[in-house]
Amino acid sequence: MSRQPYVRPISTTTWYMRNGRYKVYVLRELTSFLVAFYSVLTILALAALADSPEHWNAWIASQQTTGMVIFHALALLYFLFFQTFPWFKLAPKAMPVQLGEKKLPDSAIVIGHYVVWVVVTLFIFWLAGVF
Amino acid sequence: MDNRTRTLELEIMRYDPEKDKEPWFKSYTVPCLEDWVILDAINYVKENLDTTLAYRWSCHMMVCGSCGMMVNGEPVLTCKTFIRELPDKVRIEPLENFPIERDLVVVLDDVVQKLHKVQPYIIRKDPPPPEDKEYIQSKAQLAIFKQLTMCINCMCCYAACPQYGLDNSFIGPAALALAHRYNRDNRDQGIHDRLDILGEHDGVWECSFVGACSEVCPKHVDPAAAIQQMKVDAAMEFWKQKMGLVEGKS
């Protein structure tokens, strides 16, 4: 009896097509380049703000073109669906809260994240003079 | 014959290392009872249709962890997978990401080594308690890690993990969950030793949080959660060592 274990080949380029779970994961990871892009955009905005009122107003104007408004709307949707929702859903895994013998329910941790998110957003709106 | 209520077509992957160059599929028509699990159908094949079929099983009740297989592409315990939840045609393969020894039997040597590597036992730095005393553990202290003790080493998580499939130097879900089980045990004092192993490239950082391991785990161990928590622990350990608060392994 000779041993000759067979190793099944795995494609390094199409492995994620095997099931829906992998596809969702790859979509989340691939689309994360938008996060980097948005970070650069934010840094440019801060640079303009630090530079001069003229520079800032020019930057604001550059973001109000139809193309940029569509981009920001899509980016917002993207952040919600591919980053905020999944990561908030996964938060209880990384930071479980133990209360004696019981664990704080996952839903409480997720809801906590949404509450903080809303409060921070409202605070930034207030800082920006929206209200 | 009693009242067989359903006929299933099982497509089972076969591989005989002495005859076959690569695995192939063989179909079996199996008359089943409605309350059968897939393992019952495979046992029927072995007992009535083809005695040469090789596969592992023992307890038939989700305790031994030996009957893990791919059923229609999902890594499952075949003793827990009811045929009533499956279509009439079922494809059965050995667990993915492992070499095939023969038919549905896979080579698990690599995982056994990895389980050993993470030092899955209580490590004490202080002297042990006197002979007539024991280590005290409250219910609350047990609750912190009890879920992680439920692992039966069925290795479905390894079959689900694309990271392990692409690069099997990764320590992987079950072994890392086991490490976390000891790290979170109040009787243990080996967390610094273990984090030195877990914080290396083939440790927790190789995990990119696909989360498939936790979704397929038949015992709800949640290895993905354990690994994310260890990433936090490993990062804290790194900074503690940098700041000289704890001694690192040199």
Key descriptive features of the protein:
heterodimer; A: 131 residues; mainly alpha; 3 helical TM bundles of succinate and fumarate reductases; 5 helices; 2 strands; flat; B: 250 residues; alpha+beta; Ubiquitin-like (UB roll); Fumarate Reductase Iron-sulfur Protein, Chain B, domain 2; 2 domains; 5-stranded mixed sheet; two-stranded antiparallel ribbon; 14% strand; elongated
Q: What characteristic shape of chain A results from the CA principal axes?
A: flat
Greatest interface (CB-CB under 8 A), with counts per chain: A-B, 29 and 35 residues
Q: What's the multimeric state?
A: heterodimer
Percentage of residues assigned to helices of chain A: 55-70%
Q: Could you name the CATH class of the largest domain in chain B?
A: Mainly Alpha
Shape of chain B: elongated
Strand order within the widest sheet of chain A?
Answer: 1-2
CATH superfamily membership of the largest domain in chain B, which one?
Alpha-helical ferredoxin
* Main sheet properties of chain B: 5 strands, mixed
Per CATH, which architecture of the domain at 11-78 in chain A?
Up-down Bundle
Q: Look at the helices and sheets of chain A and give the structural class.
A: mainly alpha
Radius of gyration of chain B: 21 Å
Distance between the termini of chain A: 80 Å
Low-confidence segments of chain B, ≥5 residues, pLDDT <50?
A: none
